[in-house]
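lol forgot to send this yesterday, sorry. struct tokens for the thing we talked abt
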């Protein structure tokens, strides 16, 4: 599922570009609607925006941040096609999920779980560092890529993309800790058994695929 909404501070927003792309409309047309009904939108909250530069000489594109009521109002001004209806459903679901996550993040339980996940991440990173040195000793010229490769593998296993860990739920954080613990022990065991470094990575990948199947994450 594409990321349609995001947490900014203590609020949740989508933006005009997301709505334009999700509903099959030109961004300029969506912005025109925002400007046309600006007074109505302002009753639902102040506007914030970012200017996206398209080139050295091109004029920047102004992208409007929209809270949930503003986004809902904007969609009512669009033609009610099946694409728009499907997009609105997904948008509503993501706003609901983010509101629940925002409440979770304010809880002591989420903060403790995130701290535990960070501690596990430190152990995993130390183990990956040892794998990098181990691979280099076996002649690898690109061993440092394992930092990124194994991080992506962990995120992919639980359905997160890069930079989303701060938006993970308690359940996702707990699952991520399990995933990184698997990576930690596979690397440790592989080095102790003097396995080829490539085989250690493939064992990590296989174990995480098995984990996904067992936990129905796939």
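and heres what i got for the seq, position by position
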């Amino acid at each position: 599922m594409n990321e349609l909404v995001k947490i900014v501070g203590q609020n949740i927003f989508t933006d005009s570009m997301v709505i334009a792309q999700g509903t099959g409309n030109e961004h300029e047309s969506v912005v025109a609607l925002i400007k046309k009904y600006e007074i109505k939108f302002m009753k639902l909250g102040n506007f914030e925006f970012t200017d996206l530069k398209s080139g050295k000489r091109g004029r920047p594109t102004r992208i409007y941040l929209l809270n949930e009521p503003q986004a809902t109002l904007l969609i009512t001004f669009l033609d009610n096609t099946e694409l728009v209806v499907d997009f609105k459903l997904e948008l509503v679901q993501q706003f609901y999920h983010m509101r629940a996550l925002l409440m979770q993040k304010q809880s002591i339980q989420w903060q403790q779980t995130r701290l535990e996940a960070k501690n596990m991440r430190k152990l995993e990173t130390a183990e990956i560092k040892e794998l990098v040195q181990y691979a280099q000793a076996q002649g690898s010229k690109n061993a440092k890529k394992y930092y990124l490769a194994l991080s992506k593998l962990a995120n992919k296993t639980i359905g997160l993309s890069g930079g989303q860990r701060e938006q993970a739920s308690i359940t996702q954080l707990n699952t991520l800790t399990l995933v990184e613990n698997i990576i930690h022990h596979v690397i440790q065991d592989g080095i102790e058994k003097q396995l080829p470094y490539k085989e250690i990575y493939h064992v990590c990948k296989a174990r995480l695929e098995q984990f996904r199947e067992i936990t129905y994450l796939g």
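The beta strands are 6-8, 11-15, 48-52, 61-66. anyway ping me if u want another try
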